[in-house]
Amino acid sequence: MPQNKTNSQAQTRQPAQQNPVTALDLPIPAHKDLPEPVAQYFSKCQEKLGLVPNVLSAYSHNLEQLDAFSRLYNELMFGDSGLSTLEREMIAVVVSAHNRCFYCLSAHGAAVRQYSGNPLLGEQLVMNYRVADISARQRAMLDFAQRLTAQPETIEETDRQLLRAQGFSDTEIWDIASLTGFYNMTNRLAGAVEMQPNPEYHASYRSADEPA
Amino acid sequence: MPQNKTNSQAQTRQPAQQNPVTALDLPIPAHKDLPEPVAQYFSKCQEKLGLVPNVLSAYSHNLEQLDAFSRLYNELMFGDSGLSTLEREMIAVVVSAHNRCFYCLSAHGAAVRQYSGNPLLGEQLVMNYRVADISARQRAMLDFAQRLTAQPETIEETDRQLLRAQGFSDTEIWDIASLTGFYNMTNRLAGAVEMQPNPEYHASYRSADEPA
Amino acid sequence: MPQNKTNSQAQTRQPAQQNPVTALDLPIPAHKDLPEPVAQYFSKCQEKLGLVPNVLSAYSHNLEQLDAFSRLYNELMFGDSGLSTLEREMIAVVVSAHNRCFYCLSAHGAAVRQYSGNPLLGEQLVMNYRVADISARQRAMLDFAQRLTAQPETIEETDRQLLRAQGFSDTEIWDIASLTGFYNMTNRLAGAVEMQPNPEYHASYRSADEPA
Amino acid sequence: MPQNKTNSQAQTRQPAQQNPVTALDLPIPAHKDLPEPVAQYFSKCQEKLGLVPNVLSAYSHNLEQLDAFSRLYNELMFGDSGLSTLEREMIAVVVSAHNRCFYCLSAHGAAVRQYSGNPLLGEQLVMNYRVADISARQRAMLDFAQRLTAQPETIEETDRQLLRAQGFSDTEIWDIASLTGFYNMTNRLAGAVEMQPNPEYHASYRSADEPA
Amino acid sequence: MPQNKTNSQAQTRQPAQQNPVTALDLPIPAHKDLPEPVAQYFSKCQEKLGLVPNVLSAYSHNLEQLDAFSRLYNELMFGDSGLSTLEREMIAVVVSAHNRCFYCLSAHGAAVRQYSGNPLLGEQLVMNYRVADISARQRAMLDFAQRLTAQPETIEETDRQLLRAQGFSDTEIWDIASLTGFYNMTNRLAGAVEMQPNPEYHASYRSADEPA
Amino acid sequence: MPQNKTNSQAQTRQPAQQNPVTALDLPIPAHKDLPEPVAQYFSKCQEKLGLVPNVLSAYSHNLEQLDAFSRLYNELMFGDSGLSTLEREMIAVVVSAHNRCFYCLSAHGAAVRQYSGNPLLGEQLVMNYRVADISARQRAMLDFAQRLTAQPETIEETDRQLLRAQGFSDTEIWDIASLTGFYNMTNRLAGAVEMQPNPEYHASYRSADEPA
Predict the structure, then answer these.
(1) Residues E50-66: pLDDT tens digits?
(2) Average pLDDT over residues C131-160
(3) Cα E67 from chain centroid?
(4) Checking CA distances to C185, which of A71, A176, C69, D115 falls within 20 to 30 Å?
(5) Contact D49, D77 (CB under 8 A)
């Protein structure tokens, strides 16, 4: 993150007003003050993504929460599952669109554009997933995520049967539910603290030629 | 999933139909097949709570998710915070009441009855938190959790100011947001898979005399 | 009502601040000042239920309304009908859950626990009736009550046909509609005046062994 | 039901298809088969209103319910209260407009036109009460009725204070709440059974010159 | 409109307080100051309708907008289409009922009463179109208009198929959508500026005998 | 539209399946078959925008509607008004975001990026306008547009006063209301027929350096 590049020793806490990642005044440590494993994790993000996602910077004021959150995030998004990475990102965007979460739509909209190589798809999921040209399987998955987000009290066996009819196994249904839940969590945290997405997200993967 | 790869005995998987903890057919391992640290964690639950919460049994079909979920849960509910354990449980119940989550209302309703020593308070938060006789600080906290749950897209600085006016610090506001997000996650997972609360919850802590 | 037992002659009106049954300052007469038939009705309640429901005490500031309300209540809940008393109480709870009425959920949640001998059922109807293990007939009845409560403008012949398909006669459909309407009335009156349920309700019939 | 037990002639039940007052096939007795007090009540309606309101005909399949309903209706609409008859009818229309109840809007819309001598007022309350040119007191009363109808779970002391600030006493607040509740009941019963308003309502009191 | 008849030269702008057609202080020209084509259009309205609809007077503060609006209005309501004029007016009322637009319900409710010769139908569409005794074709048309008004993001091929199944062509579906859109526009403009319907609407066409 | 250029005489109607602009089978004329003024208008669009907006192609199956719609569109978006072109586009996006209209969000999101030279602003208005860093005046304007879109029945004098307090004149309030209404119209038409935005919109004006 840029704000870390010029931090002098005397300014180890990020000034709240300058490039704030949230609207809260949190004791976010400077990069150099992060414990080694966290610093390594952040460096790895920088390397692979070209940025440290602001959600991680924000969580870093509480290293225990950062650790637990990151583990769950990585497990759900990159762990073993019958759902492809793109499908997991699609769920992230559809849930975040319902909740109108600026941070998550920016970050995961970019990820859908990246993983699909289809910038239009990213736009469609942000705006109204019902217009997207996707498979019946993916549509059923997103309908379930949408309903579980908007009316969680109404999910019943018939809803699960619609997923099974599209070939989803019961462990995959669990994963769809877990991911839907996860983004209902992050949407609320990001919204509550006005988390700012890294500016790099907005322009990235806007062209189908851009290497993913 | 890895944990199943070494399952050898035909009887080690919990029969789906008998005392099912969810409506999904998940490869939930028998207690004796759990890896040692998980078995220890479950035994500790049994000891301290008199039961292994069904949410943990359900998650145990995926030990990586179980681990990440448990860490986040324990950090948010029992980690360092300016919020008391009762206040964290109060948020759990109010969020779950909005989402009408049977599992979470049963488990955390019992926890509110337990930690408060006030069975009536638990009932009120389940039914309509606005009728509860609580402090202005707690009411502001619950109003924020309610609004963040129902209309996450509308939270702004004025909402955070209402919390600061009641003495909440910015890290405590983060914690309120994190907890609200967390139960919006678990409500959706539990609802999606029809997770069954342990039957012990319903009758427990119904009398003010019952030792917490 | 117990609080009236020690009222001295000079204090025939219940003090508004002490054990108030509503948030309004209403001229609620002391028990000894009630007209004979009302006093007898209240005594009968005390005998049979162990309490005089606070809704009756509240209404007693207007004896004509009390009389009319009680007649309608008793006719709908205990009059001739193809619906069992438990089924009528189930409707009461489901309607009150939608409207989040603390008074009615407390009183009728207890009644469902009592009449069913199934404490879990009472909890489920309070929290989310969709998770309850009930007959298809009862589920159709509660779905109708729920829809009529939440979207009264949308009920049409198809909705009534769903009830007939479960064996409900047209007079029973009338009764389901009447009961649903009735609790939509009481929920609003109780909510508007912050009516307090008698404290006895909360702990009662929490165990399946408790005699109904 | 008891009233049918003594029905002797095959023709005394109103044919369901001809001029049906509801979509249900109910054993509505012919006028000549009504018990004397009911027949007198209906005759009095005919005399004073020029019609027997269909809601009474519909209820007459169950004479006990008819009696209890009529008592409550008459007490709330014509009993002692600080609210004028017009104000009570205004509440009826505003509640029924929210619930889009054809029967109640027809009957009570006509009553508002009649009692106010202002046909425009009746139309406005049916369409959107916020456009009506009424006193601040009446507006506060209708805002309370609207909120209690649409979001009963949110009413609190501040809402009651808004009424007190307009001069409403606590017993009048009770009456506003009772009336709001009552029409939330009748709207649901009428909607559930597709109750047909007497055709006379629609054209009546459309001109300010028409004698009330 | 009466206010224009006696306007002296010095008072070419309508006084905002006297017979205002909106709650805005707009530079509405006096009739004599209108450009010739507009004056002719208004005179034609007066002749044919017995009034100049207030929406036109209101728009006349901006003659370009008035011209464009009138053209679109006339094209949609009176241009070539497979929809009858009555059907177009029915859509107007159903959309306006959802949006609770006093102006449009008054004007188009009268039009439905006029074109149908059925005063009851006008009332029903204002109150709850689901109770109207209309053809399956018209019901499908109104269901589409209702859903497109209330949940525009959910319309999909299945919705269009329901219209085609009732015999609507694709250009007629376009017209239904255009009309539904148009009244969603006018409802919002009229509501935003508190546009007053011409008083003549309310009493007109209340009797089936009244010549249309 | 390019695809029409090579249409032979026999194929003057655009095949519905190939590059369809809507989900309807409409008799959209080939460019060469358009009347001269329309052809000129389309050519001017092509020249200035690099494309003919699909909404115009879609409307061209009905040239009278096309003409009226275009006039109103051009008057509202480019006519005399105290609102800047950017502000008018901001309203378009905020209304379309509420209604989740894929077509309008694509076209007008691009326009906000273009006119503001601020790609981030376009994204924010699409996702959740409340996070945008805009003036208090613009925020008030968008809050009004949002409320008028979501709850048109609730707009009252206090809402207009909030606009006047930000310096908006009454004619500007009219324009805000007109624009809000207009996009509530187009959102519904576009949604109803599944109108496809021109693909050029999605990638355009994504960088602040791109010339507007």
Answers:
(1) 999 999 999 999 999 99
(2) 98
(3) 16
(4) D115
(5) no
